[in-house]
């Protein structure tokens, strides 16, 4: 038995799993931790039997640090595991309950979903997509995003889903990096009652990239769009005569299932590569364990399919467990601030998985909104995306969980593919604000700069010490960056997560937040360097330093320190122009909160902007030793400029 894993043996103060919940939970025997720790490979192998394979693996793991392969020699299809396997027992069970912002509802049974997916898979084949070709998907939260993803998986074409709120330029960068020839998008969609003209964004963005052969456009909102002859086709037209059965492609365990772009410390967004076998085993298993999914649950994950949470815990995990899932297209305050609770009441949702930033917003709106509805069907509630402060955790537990639902605060990342640190709701005593313990089979630690474990209560870096099935395999087209980013902090066997953390006396993990130049705005991940390069592409800007400032509601907001080109006047107009410029070039979620003009920025003697110092200034913290700066006086000047904003 590992030293710190078996929490049930200790007398920990916190929220114990309610007795009847624990009794009926899928996982309620704490021995699972010890068994998995003693022999992680057998643990994962046992769970791999939850997936259907055309051919089973020869070996569970091949680990040549930092490169790993899982379920070597195994053959399977991810779409088959989400749809076909459910046909025997639950063909007519609802797979998706979709609700549009306008109130439209569409439902698909497993059988219907399989037909749609197969038809669309045939459409993709018809446009020439072959196994291994990367297809880009740029759709809002409509059933077609799931259909398109699964259709890709069915024919062995890795998908790259780009969050619908990204700009056309951001889309083009990702299409270019993936060398993707086919794009699936829609005319437009509704956000707080206003149209977002998605197809127009596509046309603007890809003018420059000229890579695409085919654009398939789903007619969703009904706004006017222009269609490029020979390239653009309507979804409904190509689907009309498409054959509704399609043999799934037999995929190797290590064939790429999808690419997911995410922001890092430097440069352009990187394509995180996930493969098929390990990812399916990991998401299938963790969905079942963490959410305690049962046959009659109605499960709602509010994440967007444009992010990893939508991939792992809206599509692949839940559907491979035969779940009925709810999918909602719109804003939480449209038409009013009770929209989520109204959805939960009407669809009798039993499990809710959402983000701290949403929870803090609900908290600000007050408990009268959830109180307008019967949300007592909920039996488990979860959180993901950024640290949840104890106050928000307690509010969530009390007002949404009605004091009776276990809360699962789940720590993980695009790169990990699966939930890594989280309570098991039938076992773990939870403490508000702590993601608690690594999942069975996961070995995590908090290390210092040298790679030694830090004592309880002390801050350090979060590290993963053993490989896991859904770990990122590489950065698409850039193995060097993969190794440099994740496997170079200590030795090449220890994964550097980029988060700060500490453990308490009970061994519980408390995640503090990013220690690199990644900013988390409302849970969205934005890279400082990426943002700076957008700002300096504006004709008035000479230099920019972009950092996160702590924010009660959004976790962090963006502070941009900008030096203008000589001769350019500082003005409020220019500030708002730069704000819109950034929002337009990345996406509206990346709107900077403050733009601060300054004649100079804190730089090292070699001229590198010191974000560490800027971050301290933005957060009214001590910037530490600044004597190595080119001009230490800059700090006082910026402090003053920042102070007057607060
Ligand atoms: C980063 C990963 C995981 C899917 C959504 C975000 C932060 C995520 C938690 C949590 C504290 C969290 C970390 C992590 N994060 N979940 N429960 N507690 N921090 O995926 O965009 O790849 O971001 O989100 O900083 O490194 P992502």
TrEMBL record:
Pfam families: ACAS_N, AMP-binding, AMP-binding_C. It catalyses: acetate + ATP + CoA = acetyl-CoA + AMP + diphosphate. Residues 86-467 form the AMP-dependent synthetase/ligase domain. One of its GO terms (biological process) is carbon fixation by 3-hydroxypropionate cycle. The modification N6-acetyllysine is found at residue 608. The keyword Kinase does not apply. Acetylated. Deacetylation by the SIR2-homolog deacetylase activates the enzyme. Residues 530-608 form the AMP-binding enzyme C-terminal domain. SUPFAM superfamilies: Acetyl-CoA synthetase-like (SSF56801). GO terms for molecular function: 3-hydroxypropionyl-CoA synthetase activity; acetate-CoA ligase activity; AMP binding; ATP binding; metal ion binding. Keywords: Acetylation, ATP-binding, Ligase, Magnesium, Metal-binding, Nucleotide-binding. Catalyzes the conversion of acetate into acetyl-CoA (AcCoA), an essential intermediate at the junction of anabolic and catabolic pathways. AcsA undergoes a two-step reaction. In the first half reaction, AcsA combines acetate with ATP to form acetyl-adenylate (AcAMP) intermediate. In the second half reaction, it can then transfer the acetyl group from AcAMP to the sulfhydryl group of CoA, forming the product AcCoA. This is Acetyl-coenzyme A synthetase. It comes from Methanolobus mangrovi.
